[in-house]
Amino acid sequence: MRVAVFPGSFDPITLGHYDIVERASPLFDKIIIAIGQNSQKKYMFSLEQRINFIKKTFEKFPNIEVDHFEGLTIDYCRSRDVKFILRGLRNPSDFEFEKAIAQTNRELTHNNKVETIFLLTSASKAFISSSIVREIISFNGNYELLVPDSVRV
């Protein structure tokens, strides 16, 4: 069974995230959208809200599961016996950052390799980031065109 973990904070999930999952869905038997918790980070939306946003967004996708974890993504993958990490790339700086993490993860897994699969975000969604959406929300701006319907609060 080909299972991938799509990790992130998803604070909130955006149409860019949706684009990646929708396009990756036929490539894997299951995609686990795994919300990472970082005790150092201040979130706009609670873990429960983010889980609900994602579950509602992907309710018509039978091969999508939503979960959460603390710690390293690679440890979470190991605990779930997952061999693939799914990541979206918006621009060249994303690639450089994600490449370093992917190479580190391969080293950390030794003989039990976990491969990182990169998908380019569609050009029409490449400018969207959760941090931009949070900024727009904090100033009562029109963020609705950047997020799935489930996030419109």
Would you mind describing this structure in some detail?
By secondary structure, this protein is an alpha/beta fold. The chain has one domain: HUPs (Rossmann fold, 3-Layer(aba) Sandwich), CATH 3.40.50.620. The protein is 36% helix and 22% strand. It has helices spanning 15-24, 47-57, 73-80, 92-108, 130-138, and strands at 3-8, 30-37, 64-70, 84-89, 115-120. Helix 4 (92-108) links the parallel strand 4 and strand 5. The protein is globular and about 50 Å long. ATP binds at residues 9-10, 17, 88-90, 98, 125-131. Its main location: cytoplasm. It catalyses: (R)-4'-phosphopantetheine + ATP + H(+) = 3'-dephospho-CoA + diphosphate. Its EC number is 2.7.7.3.
Order of strands, main sheet, comes to 3-2-1-4-5
- Arithmetic mean of pLDDT: 93
Number of strands: 5
The CATH topology comes to Rossmann fold
Runs in which pLDDT lies below 50 for 5 or more consecutive residues are none
Radius of gyration: 15 Å
Order of helices and strands: EHEHEHEHEH
Largest sheet: 5 strands, parallel
What is the CATH homology-level superfamily?
HUPs
Instruction: Tell me the span between the first and last alpha carbons.
Output: 37 Å
Estimated share of beta-strand residues: 15-25%
Number of helices: 5
Please estimate the helix content: 25-40%
CATH top level is Alpha Beta
Counting helices, strands and paired strands, the structural category is alpha/beta
CATH architecture: 3-Layer(aba) Sandwich
User: How many domain regions?
Assistant: 1
Shape call: globular
